Amino acid sequence: MTRVLIVDDDALLRRSLAFNLEKAGYTASTAASAEDALAQADLNPPDLVLLDIGLPGIDGLDALRRLRQQMPQVPVIFVTARRRELDQVVGLELGADDYVTKPFDVDVLLSRIKAVLRRSVPPPQPREPAPLEVGDVAIDPAAHTVAVDGHLVDLAPREFDLLYALAREAGHVVSMDDLLARVWGAEYAGEPQVVYVHIRWLREKLEDDPARPRRIVTVRGVGYKLVPLSGGGS
Predict the structure, then answer these.
(1) How far is CA 119 from CA 95, 130, 185, 194, in A?
(2) Is the pTM of this model over 0.85?
């Protein structure tokens, strides 16, 4: 049975989440602090972690860094009430797989958990997707590498998926809805902010001047397209 570790300093919320997760068929364990969670995970690794940001002692952001060192493959969903940190969390640069904001509907959370667990065990593929070249941008899905003008660029997993989705339609506009469906899944319909943030992160890594992008171009009211440029062309 899938085991979910709930890490939150709110005792009532921990009990409520554990009850609802058990009711939905999961095995739930709880921790009131990051220190307790890390100790539990070391003894009995969970299949997924629900991690609050605003924890006493070690906060959720630092806890995620430690969890990633301890169990790099276990999916983590951030739980946050801090709107000012949402941009950083949505960027998921620390390696979190998803986020939910308080207060949240339990059914929405269960849907996100199912989606993250589904993504964490990708279906077998008969062959690796083909490498793509769009101008001076070279993308190799098998090696999970991206190079711009021959220089490797370090991308987070979701950034890579977004770039590959654009590269498959190079020179053509890909709508916001299509990007959400291809990269994040149907659960994210109507949440364009995740695309905005990831596009910004990509531009900061791929463009010489992110404020005046020439590779990843916005088509207002429609979506985005990846434009081929020659070496040194941005």
Answers:
(1) 14, 20, 10, 17
(2) no
